[in-house]
Amino acid sequence: MNARPAGSSPGVRLRAAREARGLSIEEVADRLRLNAALVLAMEQDRLALLGAPVFARGHLRNYAALVGAPEEEVMAACDPADVPEPTFLPALDRRPLPPGRARWIWPAAAAAIVTAVAAAVWWMTRN
Mean pLDDT of successive 10-residue segments in the chain (127 residues)? Predict the structure, then answer.
């Protein structure tokens, strides 16, 4: 994080506004529909835990609106360098299906089931 005066960080501003309203972290989390750990992360300026920068800014803005903190001041105190861009997880390890045969497994199974049901219905109606 960048060095900044303690009173100017978004977390300090949000915490002060929350305490002035007499709200607990759990109450804020409940009203914002967030995990209490994320609310605490915002108050501790651990913005990287909030996800992509767009989500972090949205959470900060919603928190500020909830507790009556000046949204523009909170957002201005938020340094974009504090919120890293997300890293993308590698795709799930999936083995490719063998060519040719794999495409026909499900249609063949469905055709076999339909044939079996049709034969059972025909046999029952004959007897």
Answer: 58 94 95 93 89 88 94 84 63 59 77 95 90
Q: Counting Cβ atoms within 10 Å, is residue 31 exposed (0-12), middle (13-18) or buried (19+)? A: middle
Structure tokens that stand for 13 in this block = 């501003």
Other beta carbons within 10 angstroms of residue 42's beta carbon come to 28
Tokens for 64?
A: 């500020």
What secondary structure letter does DSSP report for 99? Answer: T
What's the pLDDT score for residue 101?
58
- Total of domains in the chain: 1
Q: Range of 76's domain?
A: 6-82
Q: Residue 61: which H helix or E strand, with range?
A: helix 53-67
The answer to whether position 29 is within a domain reads yes
- Confirm if 45 and 2 have CB atoms less than 8 A apart: no
68: domain CATH number is 1.10.260.40
Task: Check if the beta carbon of residue 42 is closer than 8 Å to that of residue 59.
Answer: yes
